[in-house]
Amino acid sequence: MTEELLVVKNLKKYYPITGGVLGGEVGVVKAVDDVSFAVKRGETLGLVGESGCGKSTTGRSLLRLIEPTAGEITFDGVNVTALSTDEMRKMRRDMQIVFQDPFASLNPRHNIEKILEEPLVVHKIGTSSERKKRVQEMLEVVGLSSYHARRYPHQFSGGQRQRIGIARALMLNPKLIVADEPVSALDVSIQSQVLNLMQDLQKEMGLTYLFIAHDLSVVRHISDRVGVMYLGRIVELTTSGQLYSNPLHPYTKALLSAVPTPDPDDVRERVILQGDVPSPANPPSGCTFHTRCPHVTEECRSTRPAFQDVGDGHFVACHLYKQ
Amino acid sequence: MSDPVLQIENLQTHFFTDRGQIPAVDGVTITVNKGEVVGIVGESGCGKSVTSLSVMKLVPNPPGKIVGGTIKFKGEDLVTANEKRMRDIRGNEIAMIFQEPMTSLNPVFTIGNQIGEAIRLHTKASKKQSRDRAIDMLKKVGIPRAEAIVDEYPHQLSGGMRQRVMIAMAMACNPELLIADEPTTALDVTIQAQILDLMRQLNREAQTAILLITHDLGVVAEMCHRVVVMYAGNVIEEGDVRTILKKPKHPYTKGLLNSLPKLEESQERLYSIPGNVPIPGSLTVGCRFAPRCDQATDLCRSEMPQLKAVGDNHFSRCWLSE
Ligand SMILES: Nc1ncnc2c1ncn2[C@@H]1O[C@H](COP(=O)(O)OP(=O)(O)OP(=O)(O)O)[C@@H](O)[C@H]1O
Ligand SMILES: Nc1ncnc2c1ncn2[C@@H]1O[C@H](COP(=O)(O)OP(=O)(O)OP(=O)(O)O)[C@@H](O)[C@H]1O
Ligand SMILES: [Mg+2]
Ligand SMILES: [Mg+2]
């Protein structure tokens, strides 16, 4: 067994832009543009970045819920990019996803028992009574009770729904959970309940998480290592301690300094970035951050910086740190 | 310092639904003085937006109705003001910014048209002059290519740019009070930083009072002089920003602050307030927070505490704070 559960190499996802009178392809949106990372068994890797930087596209591509344009994804020693649709479906027993609001995609006419049972039915696991027993167990694991099994999605609060989303992902006893903004829609008091639950489950069940969020404090709290994305690329990746105490990429620094902290005496120096994030349909040349970077040089405008280890597994893609 | 622009006193705004009467805002008192930034914080459904919509008299009626209390704007009672007077006030003396700027921008007029109109309402500027001023305003709020953007329509702009246009409009009419309801919640942190900066500028340069509604205690720390914490339709604690964030008295405020993951240090485990906010309209006796409070006593469960002074300009609605 290798230390790494998931290895992603040179992942790309380009969406065609169609237009013109003939509806032909007139360009591409480079939603994910050459991303590489690995997730170790039992760890939580966080992915942060601003809206549209490609976090969800990355997460979904890993499970091939959307087909990657290029790249290699190795999960538990198996190259999943080479699997047939049927083999991939079986593989997904071990890789599950939790969404921001899992109920947006669920049938409002099914009760919770039916919703939680469904993955077992799809994979033809257990008898009807065994499945019902598993549903009860999972409800208790996530802090709900069998009393909730007969209720319908709309009868739950946001925090309870997220518990159900997590329970559903856990039904098949997976190895990896991709959690795409699992707490972004929740109030802080409920957010902390769900984060604690996720940490407890990880310890008990030996889960590995890819945790996607745009809130840096949340990602720092839950993750062992964090990758920062900008315009379809990972610009920095290191341990969460290093990222916050010693950020290297100018974008990471700006992002960290922009987060308001609930301390009125906090007098950090603010780097306020000018302008908006450029469009991934027309990304800047060279380093895609060069249009907003306070340290931009000629080289940044023309040459894409390599994503390299600058020591102790601290990766950064920036010409300032060339070796 | 006591030069009140807005005085909300014992406001009660209820909704009359088939599930019964819902006391969404149930006796709220908030004062905003000239040049002051006052924050309202609290979890989803606690009545922040209904409070601000009540001030503007924009609560949908039916089902909503102000059933008690007074709202005074520079001494004038808004609860009894007629719709014509309210139309004069809205967007002029009191400007508003919402979470989703598209709700307040008109999709069929260009950006220049909309800012220009606000300018012409306040000065005797000609069409040409107000267009030039609109371009100046857009530049001031940091919009690139202002000369071109002025002729574009709202849907052609990003969320952050639209929010900047809203601020430009608010600046153009030089209001006494700006009500901002989650103005940066839908925006990324780097764009949020730009917008907060602009609001601070408006407050400092024009002495505009701001009532800022947010659920983000970080935004509160950065922007507000004073904070009002709401829970289930009530104000449960109020004080200056430093007191509320550093020495809160109410168990709910303490719980909220402890639930937050911290950026600067790692914590093993987060504190979490047990349970959920009460279902709106559910009958309660005693303190509304008692079912979730780990210090609740029999008194808390049987009698509702009043908002009482617990220090200098510091108020808490809790039997234990006394
Ligand atoms: N089906 C699609 N067709 C075309 N473009 C798409 C499609 N899905 C996503 N995109 C584009 O790809 C880019 C990355 O989107 P993605 O949803 O991965 O971002 P994200 O980082 O998850 O953002 P958010 O924080 O808003 O969820 C965006 O510019 C988006 O507009
Ligand atoms: N149109 C309506 N009909 C019935 N009840 C309503 C209506 N609008 C609001 N309410 C009630 O008023 C309460 C307060 O709502 P409000 O929008 O003020 O909450 P909020 O504090 O702004 O929450 P959020 O943080 O989610 O914006 C809600 O719990 C809701 O039950
Ligand atoms: Mg996403
Ligand atoms: Mg609201």
From TrEMBL, chain A:
Q: Which GO terms describe its biological process?
A: peptide transport; transmembrane transport
Q: Name one Pfam family in it.
A: ABC_tran
Which GO terms label this protein's molecular function in UniProt?
ATP binding; ATP hydrolysis activity
Q: Where is the ABC transporter domain?
A: 6-256
For the keyword Lyase, the answer is no
Its keywords, alphabetically, are: ATP-binding, Nucleotide-binding, Transport
Q: Which SMART domains match?
A: AAA
- Asked if the Swiss-Prot or TrEMBL record annotates the protein with the keyword ATP-binding, the reply is yes
As for family, the record states:
Belongs to the ABC transporter superfamily.
The record's listing under NCBIfam families reads: oligo_HPY, PRK11308.1
Provide the protein name.
Answer: ABC transporter ATP-binding protein
* Organism from which the protein derives: Brevibacillus parabrevis
From TrEMBL, chain B:
Q: Which UniProt keywords apply?
A: ATP-binding, Cell membrane, Membrane, Nucleotide-binding, Transport
Q: Which GO-annotated molecular functions does the record name?
A: ATP binding; ATP hydrolysis activity
Topologically, how does it sit relative to the membrane?
Answer: Peripheral membrane protein
User: Which GO annotations describe the biological process of this protein?
Assistant: peptide transport
- Primary location group: membrane
Source taxon at top rank: Bacteria
Q: Where in the cell is it found?
A: Cell membrane
Q: Which InterPro entries match?
A: AAA+_ATPase, ABC_Ni/Peptide_Import, ABC_transporter-like_ATP-bd, ABC_transporter-like_CS, Oligopep_ABC_C, P-loop_NTPase
Name the GO cellular-component terms.
plasma membrane
Does the keyword field hold Cell cycle? no
Q: Which family does it belong to?
A: Belongs to the ABC transporter superfamily.
What protein name is recorded for this chain? Peptide ABC transporter ATP-binding protein
Q: Which organism is it from?
A: Brevibacillus parabrevis
Q: Which gene encodes it?
A: oppD_2
